[in-house]
Specification:
single chain; 87% helix
């Protein structure tokens, strides 16, 4: 049987690859958030400039960990949704192929029953 919907198959593959990349980026962003939280006020003071002193204490690290957790959770949820979209497209193409094959089988069966 002829394969149809080549563009949809390609789009499904693209979405699956994007979902995997999104998950990897979420993990990297989580790690960078933890590193930034660990760096503490020294880095923040160098970013803000001289004359402005930022003392976050341990609250900055705790907030950074919380932010990293949020980045991780929502990043992985987004990655899962993008990957699932690719799988959904594959599912719909498979349903169409199965329906077409069933219809062809029924037509053949009725044709043989009418000849017999």
């Amino acid at each position: 049987m002829q394969k149809k919907f080549g563009v949809l198959r390609f789009a499904a593959s693209v979405f699956k690859v994007l979902g995997i990349l999104w998950g990897i980026i979420a993990l990297i962003a989580c790690a960078l958030t933890i590193v930034a939280a660990s760096a503490g006020p020294q880095v923040m003071n160098s970013v803000i400039g001289t004359g402005n002193y930022v003392d976050m204490g341990s609250g900055g690290f705790i907030a950074g960990l919380f932010g990293a957790l949020l980045v991780l959770v929502f990043g992985l949820i987004g990655a899962l949704c993008i990957y699932a979209l690719g799988e959904l497209i594959n599912l719909l193409v498979a349903v169409e192929e199965n329906t077409r094959a069933s219809a062809l089988a029924l037509v053949k069966e009725r044709g043989q029953a009418g000849n017999g």
